[in-house]
Amino acid sequence: MKALVLAGGKGTRLRPLTHTSAKQLVPVANKPVLYYGLEAIRDAGITSVGIIVGDTGPEVRRAVGDGSRFGLEVTYIPQEAPLGLAHCVLIAQDFLADDPFVMYLGDNFLIGGIADQVSAFQAGGYDAQILLTRVAEPQFYGVAELGPAGEIIALEEKPAVPRSDLAIVGVYLFSPVIHQAVRAIEPSDRGELEITDAIQWLIRTGHSVQSHMVSGYWRDTGRLQDMLECNRIVLESVDRDIKGAVDTLSEITGRVVIAPGAVVENSILRGPIVIGADTKISSAYVGPFTSIGEGCVVQNAEIEYSIVLDGSSVDGVSRIAHSLIGRNVEVSRASGPPYTHELMVGDHSRIQVRS
């Protein structure tokens, strides 16, 4: 069995961060989201992986390499434009050949892995298996309608009036017959080959399409609130591990991870949090559910429930919360007249200040 991992796309909902970075490489607990998916694939016993890449392909290639660090053999498959999930299957046919495969969206986050789902698919002999989970707002997702035996009756993409609360998780399992389906369908109104249309073709032509309910935690990490929530979930499970230097004036409470080379001085750290290598925390408060990357500086500041990427600094600011700060960003207190905000903000940014 093989795996097809989708790591292209524009990441429009995480702009401006994704103007210059692949959305699949935004870190959760200081590890890129894409890595969690690759590890889940490996743990399911799959070693041959094709990765669909787009404009951010060079960055993905640098981050994943040949896959050996994950115990995988990786083949990169360029996609000239984001033309739909079914288009990814179409251009990957040479790699996939006649093998069954799992298609994993690289920006999806699924606690508990996919080993059980892969075993169920192989044992059932299905032509397709879709992972589903119950959501509060199904109108924002692809939605499945099931028959009495758990078979898929119909799929709808972001319906105005959903027929169920079962959202389609970004992990699919297919037999080689899916190649017939993706060649048989036409582009949708938005000009893409939709995987839901290909699955509908399988249903219409009498092939077996089964569902598998996801009992663990799942998120599509395309939005800020989803990234922060995934970060919280992962940090809930970390163990205390302090390898960096902490002075006697600092107070460390709870599950705190401090990587080698990091320095903590005269600060309060309340776990669960992760501090990356060579980061300096000075005269600061770092609160729960915060991940700070490598080579950062946080001084005379307060931050909690946030993600700070590599090389950034937060100086003299309080209090920061519910925030995602990109790479090599400077956040500092303005030195001008009182109550003045000095901002240099890129396209598609969002800034919230208290007047």
What is shown here, in short?
It comes from Planotetraspora phitsanulokensis. The chain is built from eight helices and 30 strands. The protein is α/β, with parallel strands linked by helices.
Structural overview:
The chain has 355 residues and is of the alpha/beta class. It has two domains: 2-234, Spore Coat Polysaccharide Biosynthesis Protein SpsA, Chain A (Alpha-Beta Complex), CATH 3.90.550; 238-332, UDP N-Acetylglucosamine Acyltransferase, domain 1. Helix content is 19%, strand content 31%. Helix 6 (178-184) packs across helix 7. InterPro entries: G1P_thy_trans_l, NTP_transferase_dom, Nucleotide-diphossugar_trans. This is Glucose-1-phosphate thymidylyltransferase.
Question: Any chance you could write out the topology, listing elements then pairs?
Answer:
Layout (H helix, E strand, L loop, with lengths): L1 E6 L19 E2 L2 E2 H11 L4 E6 L3 H8 L8 E6 L6 H7 L1 H4 L4 E5 L2 E3 L4 H10 L3 E7 L7 E5 L5 E6 L8 E9 L3 H7 L10 H10 L4 E5 L4 E3 L3 H12 L5 E2 L2 E2 L4 E3 L2 E3 L4 E3 L2 E3 L2 E3 L4 E3 L2 E2 L3 E3 L4 E3 L2 E3 L2 E2 L4 E3 L4 E2 L2 E2 L4 E3 L23
Parallel strand pairs: 1-4, 1-6, 4-5, 8-12, 14-17, 15-18, 16-19, 17-20, 18-21, 19-22, 20-23, 21-24, 22-25, 23-26, 24-27, 25-28, 26-29, 27-30
Antiparallel strand pairs: 2-3, 6-11, 7-13, 8-11, 9-10
